[in-house]
Amino acid sequence: MSVLFSPLALRGVTLPNRIVISPMCQYSAVNGEATDWHMMHLGHLAMSGAALLCLEATGVEPDGRISPTDLGLYNDATEAALKRVLTAVRRYSDIKIGVQLAHAGRKASTHAPWEGSGQVPASQSGWVPYAPSPLPYSDKDIAPHALDGAGLARVRNAFAESAKRAARLGIDAIEIHAAHGYLLHQFLSPLSNHRTDSYGGSLENRMRFPLEVYDAVRAAFPDDRPVGVRVSATDWVDGGWDLPQTIAFVAELKKRGIDWIDASSGGLSSGQKIAIGPGYQVPFADGIKQATGATTMAVGLITEARQAEEILASGKADLVALARGVLYDARWPWHAAAELGASVNAPPQYWRSQPSHLKSLFADKKPAGIH
């Protein structure tokens, strides 16, 4: 039996296979509100046969968005807009849905990738970002405001309030974004955290705020639904955040009942030097899993079905997550199931599409949620 297509229970949520669609920013929201683009984007990915579809990095406050066109979940309007999209998706798909709650910190207020690079000035709907320390991401950026005690409480509470909104929306899982150079990663890394209070300096102090955010989210989200964390296992910069520190952070999360670790890397420093190749981040998931026993998710240039199967069968990770690959091929799980001799859920409207030699490709049970 294929490990890739075996079930996995995370608290009260059972995934029918081990394929996750990673959060992918769409830069298509208006005032943080989901639009018709999200209806189309999430709708077609929900038909993919993956087990879990994770919504893009979703700002917990307006100033926490990566760009002015990022998705948010921080007021009644953003919640209502997302409810409209999720109601439509769930009418036709039983895929589990997660959301990645995020705060961009000093990397906030930037242009969408196709609109150029760098920060959006305040005169053009941008804002001055917040960060652990007043250190800009690059010498072309303005210095962010350093979060004071009131600011820390505001952000922590914003994560918790967004988690409550996610619960009301019936979202199945939350991933907290502590990677890719965004706010919680900025607290973790000594390259971006130069604080001299109890939130800076030692590893214990640098972990303090991300752990407080995790605790706040976990307390705000129903106990039978899982909460995971995405980490950057290394900054790829000498003297920065690295795998041993990541393992120490995950060990603390493990004590708190973390449900998975999504092991990515980089994004904090423009000086990073990354050796990219197929599965180049899998050793991070493996290292974290072996050291802590945490459930891990492998990401990064996982493109082939047998590659994904080997990662799981060899015990390097418990889940695999695809991003660009599933945008390019939104039926990747179908094709992987066909190659590995497994079956996958598909909407009945598509059942007649399976090739004649793959009669058992689609599960013959009508998926829950279909009307």
Walk me through the structure.
The chain has 371 residues and is an alpha/beta fold. It has one domain: Aldolase class I (TIM Barrel), CATH 3.20.20. It is 32% helix and 14% strand. The chain is built from ten helices and twelve strands. The strands form three sheets. The protein has an eight-stranded parallel β-barrel with strand order 3-4-5-8-9-10-11-12, surrounded by four helices. It has a two-stranded antiparallel ribbon with strand order 1-2. α8 links the parallel β11 and β12. The longest helix is centred in the middle third of the chain and has 20 residues. The radius of gyration is 20 Å and the shape is globular. The C terminus is likely disordered.
Q: In terms of structural class, how would the helical and strand content be classed?
A: alpha/beta
Morphology call = globular
Highest CATH level, the class: Alpha Beta
Helix proportion of residues, in percent?
25-40%
What is the mean pLDDT?
95
Major β-sheet annotation: 8 strands, parallel, barrel
Task: Provide the CATH topology.
Answer: TIM Barrel
Number of domains: 1
User: What's the SSE pattern?
Assistant: EEEHEHEEEHEHHEHEHEHEHH
CATH architecture: Alpha-Beta Barrel
Estimated share of beta-strand residues: 5-15%
The count of β-strands is 12
What distance separates the N and C termini? 31 Å
Count every helix, treating DSSP H or I runs of 4 or more residues as helices.
10
Structural Rg: 20 Å
Low-confidence spans: 367-371
Name of the CATH superfamily: Aldolase class I
Biggest sheet strand order reads 3-4-5-8-9-10-11-12
